[in-house]
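PROTOCOL LOG
Step 1. Enter all chains and additional molecules of the complex.
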Amino acid sequence: MTAGVTSATVPPTIRRRLPRDERARQLVEVADTVFSEHGVAAASMEDIAERAGITKPVLYDHFGSKDGLLAAVVLRAGEELAAATLAAVDSASGPEDALARGLRAYFRFIERRRASWLSLLAEAGVPGSAAAAALEQVRDGQAELIATLMSADVPDCDLPRARLYAQVVVGASERLVTRPGTEQPSVDVLTRHMMDVIWAGFGAVRTGQRWSE
Amino acid sequence: MTAGVTSATVPPTIRRRLPRDERARQLVEVADTVFSEHGVAAASMEDIAERAGITKPVLYDHFGSKDGLLAAVVLRAGEELAAATLAAVDSASGPEDALARGLRAYFRFIERRRASWLSLLAEAGVPGSAAAAALEQVRDGQAELIATLMSADVPDCDLPRARLYAQVVVGASERLVTRPGTEQPSVDVLTRHMMDVIWAGFGAVRTGQRWSE
DNA sequence: CCCCTAACCTACCTTCGGTAACCTACCTGA
DNA sequence: TCAGGTAGGTTACCGAAGGTAGGTTAGGGG
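Step 2. Run joint prediction.
Step 3. Record the structure below.
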């Protein structure tokens, strides 16, 4: 029926040889897509190689292992996330606004790359793995940003305490976004709710108040 | 801890035949141990079978798949967690005390079963899996407990909002406990910090206050 | 004491992560 | 311009581990 129906598995384009770094970028891109479609565990290295128009050993030459590839995908997404949140925070008028803008940027990032990012969050957890380390690095980057903002706002801030606080924010945000089943609330609702719950707590930490039983 | 019959590993000489449910319990116990030692991914069904003094097909007869076995382990641990937190909350004098006691019970549970529970949290995430569903069920149970307490405390409580709040608490607690690298703070420090940050937020939700930009 | 079923095992398949060894397009220098 | 080294790529394989078909035996009920 249709004329040029042949978009075969290997595209009719000549299989060009790519420079190393360009190939690497392409592979990370393809891997991200395939991971988000089938899940990390279900995606085979052969699948990814085929989709990229090369063969398995090329993947192993670049990333060493499936875990290494996953780590690269996580890091790349993490850099985008960090860029988005940093940009948002930069344009803020004060600590409260910074927290709100940062949260909104985070939720917007998830909204755009939901399938991809969620599959990474869910399946990059294997304890000793490079992927888990990468994911932890991303999370800690976000946390450190929050903790830094707090320190800047509160001069004599207890840094360990600020870090704990930041981890609470990170964990809470991630949970709100990860939780399946229920329909995902909008970016605005999520941001608003986090601010409702968290800003008061920040106030407590700020003023050195402590809960006492 | 569990009924005395099962000392996780079975001496290879006496390989008794066990009634179905008893064997099932033993297998879950053994699997939990092996998962916590090597990690879920690294633990093979053959390993677990050997440790239990039986062979692979028995495992598959009982649980259908590795995922099924993992789900069973998660559910069993989740029941213990639910029992611990429910008991703690039951003996509370009011909502504030209930939250504090519940959090403490959670952190104590993790402290006792750290290796086991963390490996489950980290590796039971594969999206379509029974294990992920089981884990989500456990988390939602905890969240629902918190939301219910809030509703009981605040008569005209906005239930969806209470649920969001509960998810924040669950996510934050999990993050504080999961975060590797740094030395794990004590149960008291964790509980205190969560109350510092969270109780004020609860106050805001309680009184219907909302953050406004 | 037999015998039937539930409990268990042997032996196998398939998939997939990972690797050794080889091939070839492309750039570089003489 | 053409050898030839190298970066980029392929073929063909291995072994480990999830999963299963079909046979074997223990041991409690009749």
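Step 4. Note key features.
DSSP finds nine helices and no strands in chain A.
Chain A has a mean pLDDT of 89.
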